[in-house]
Amino acid sequence: MARRKHVEEYGISQQKIIAPLQRVYRNVHRYFGPYFDSTRPLTGPLSLLAPNDYETNVSMSFKDFARRITSPDSVTGIPSSRTVGQPQQYLYYSGELDRFGDWAFADIAPFSELLLPMPERSSVNLWIGQKEVVAHCHYDGYHNFYAQIRGRKKFVLIPPTSWQDVRPYPFLHPCHAQCQVNISEEGVQLPAGTMEVTLQPGDLLYLPPLWFHHVEALEVSVSVNVWTDTTQTVALERIMAISQPKLRKYFRSGVDMASSNALTAQLIVAAVMTTCSSVARVAERMDDINHNASSAPGSLPMRFVHGVVDTRYADLLQQGLVPSHRSTTVPWSDEHVCGGGLGSAVEGSRGKDALARNLAAYAREVCDIADAEIPVSTYALWMGNFVEAAVALQTGRPEFAAALLQHMVTAEGCFCSNVPSELGGLQHLLSKYCGRGLRGGQ
User: Fold this and answer.
1) Rounded distance, CA 276 to CA 271, Å?
2) DSSP state of 243
3) Between the CA of residue 266 and those of 308, 338, 397, 434, what are the distances in Å?
4) How far is Cα 279 from Cα 185, in angstroms, rounded to an integer?
5) Secondary-structure breakdown of the chain: helix, strand, coil percentages, each rounded to the nearest 5
6) What is the pLDDT of residue 267?
7) Alpha helices of 220-299 — where are they, by DSSP H?
8) What separation in angstroms does the CA of 50 have from each of 36, 43, 55, 313?
9) Is the peptide bond before 34 cis (omega within 30 degrees of 0)?
10) Class of residue 31 by CB neighbours under 10 A (exposed 0-12, middle 13-18, buried 19+)
11) What three-state secondary structure class fits 303?
12) How many whole angstroms separate alpha carbon 124 and alpha carbon 113?
């Protein structure tokens, strides 16, 4: 009877699972997250550590796992993974279904319809969670079809247009796609448009790409989901595959490499932001939902970049976890990166015009894809990722991405200050980007 309780009641046959479970998550708290990916660009340069201490790759037999998550605690009466002499432990498992063999796919057939958006870029996954386990609020860049098999599970769903309220971590950060705001904390106000839904066994939930979700298992829970990629992901991949303009040849020999790279990154961001029509549409909406938008200087393109920096980096900058534009360790020279040095950094009027044409061609190619294939509802998240990636790619110093972008948006930022009047085609670009924030030189 006990064996039936631990195994068959929860929808999975013990005989079919022979190999140990390899991706069991274990924590002394029921709250798991935010997820930490040590391979992200900012991890090494900033020596970032996970903001949590739970284990992510525990191995145990399925029999032991099932026993631990379903045995009632003698005191609380709830399922417990407690062992003698040890504190309460919470467990959940997540892994691709193909780890278990063909029989597992036969158990969930038919599922092929769920792969239709992009079958060649899909995965089918098994989730088994202990009662009360919580997954931190985050978004996925895929279509997500989520089927509840056993137990009940509560989802808090937040639209991607509310990104500034939940403050996703930077694209370069090891907690990328996770929310900096813990929506389960007491007193946190959920954004407008938030929905709560409780899945019952037999329910299927569809989550569109980039919808934030916070998940809690109300009972011992077994779920299967299908992630299948989206044309939005492919669009960003195509954008990132476009060769960025090599502007070094237009700069005078006295401009050091670090400053040349930083200036190139700024000009690329400014060109794309002023060319993509959806940037202005998104920035206009940010006036209503970004509490700091009223203090952002300049044009709508600048307001967009300001939103990216303020939402993703403000807390990290305040905590001193990433260098700011005031840092003495930045690798570039303000003499060249600031607007006042732009005129002297570029060789002659022909060089300025040629540089502007090069930038315009690149920006047009990027925006033809972005404006056609990325919806306005998810545009800020995807193109915010582009802004960060473009800076990191050009400078080779992701740890200074926030500092360089701050120069482009803050009141004391110098990208738009002391700009000379004779910049040829570049003058038009800076006027469009800086708007009322453009401050002329002598």
Assistant:
1) 9
2) P
3) 14, 10, 14, 12
4) 33
5) 45, 20, 35
6) 93
7) 231-241, 257-275, 277-289
8) 6, 9, 11, 17
9) yes
10) middle
11) helix
12) 12
Q: 219: exposed, middle or buried (C-beta count within 10 Å: 0-12, 13-18, 19+)? A: middle
Q: Identify whether the C-beta of residue 409 lies closer than 8 Å to the C-beta of residue 297.
A: yes
Nearest to 48 by CA among 175, 177, 166: 175
pLDDT in tens, 235-283: 999 999 999 999 988 888 888 999 999 999 999 999 999 999 999 999 9
Beta-carbon neighbour count of residue 4 at 10 Å? 9
CA distance 138 to 381: 12
Q: Can you spell out the DSSP letters for 377-401?
A: HHHHHHHHHHHHHHHHHHHS-GGGH
Place of tokens 């691709």: 96
Low pLDDT (below 70) residues in the chain = 1-18, 72-87, 287-297, 339-341, 411-413, 418-421, 436-442
Going from the C-alpha of 306 to that of each of 129, 297, 312, 354, 417, the distances in angstroms are 39, 8, 10, 28, 16
Q: Rounded to the nearest 5°, which phi and psi values hold at 211?
A: -75, 130
Pairing of strands 134-138, 212-217: antiparallel
What SS3 class is residue 147?
strand
Question: Could you please report the per-residue DSSP string of 357-380?
Answer: HHHHHHHHHHHHHHHHHS-HHHHH
214, containing H or E segment: strand 212-217
Give the burial class of 107: count Cβ atoms within 10 A of its Cβ; 0-12 exposed, 13-18 middle, 19 or more buried. Answer: middle
As a whole number of angstroms, the distance between CA 182 and CA 202 comes to 29
Q: pTM for the full model?
A: 0.89
Q: What is the amino acid identity at position 376?
A: V
- Retrieve residue 162's tokens: 């509310």
Q: What angle do CA 138, 142, 146 make, to 5 degrees?
A: 80
pLDDT at 317 (0 to 100) = 95
